[in-house]
Amino acid sequence: MIIIGVGTKNPAKLNAVKQTIEEQAIDAEIRSYDVPSGVSAMPMSDHETSQGAVNRARAVLNQDPEATLGIGMEGGVSELDGEMFLCNWGACADREGRLIRAGGARILLPQALADGVRSGRELGDVADAYFHQESVHTHGGTIGILTEGRVSRTEMFHHILKLIEGIYAYQKR
């Protein structure tokens, strides 16, 4: 059995890890930790969002000496041609120094959400107010609302983790 440390307490992200492990029949214990991302509270680029995921994955390995793997996930936004897109990144670090990163789909944010983020607010707070909901980021996420429930935050991160797990398996063969 391996021990997988996950750098989050967010239920949507933890469910993505659990789904990936169950789907791949990995014999693992999952431990979750509240670790810093080392980036701004609202990452504003793919680079910053990806770095947040990497920092969380590495922080878990530093915090838990028994963890075989560290997993980090980070949500953020990125600009393209003057429009703001939702972006999500994941990272996996191991004790051998291996680091694997993968990103998820991007969707255009409505102008009202983009304006709120550009004003310095976190997307989760803007989405809560805009959609009249509470803690959107811990459930279906902004992506869940904007896709009418067709893709949830858990599913988004699950897809990213499947990419990472597949790449990890390929590299370990």
From TrEMBL:
Its cofactor is Mn(2+); Mg(2+). GO terms for biological process: nucleotide metabolic process. Its EC number is 3.6.1.73. It catalyses: XTP + H2O = XDP + phosphate + H(+); ITP + H2O = IDP + phosphate + H(+). GO terms for molecular function: ITPase activity; metal ion binding; nucleotide binding. It holds the Pfam family NTPase_I-T. SUPFAM superfamilies: ITPase-like. Residues 7-160 form the Non-canonical purine NTP phosphatase/PRRC1 domain. It is an enzyme of class 3 (hydrolase). Keywords: Hydrolase, Magnesium, Manganese, Metal-binding, Nucleotide metabolism, Nucleotide-binding. Belongs to the YjjX NTPase family. This is inosine/xanthosine triphosphatase.
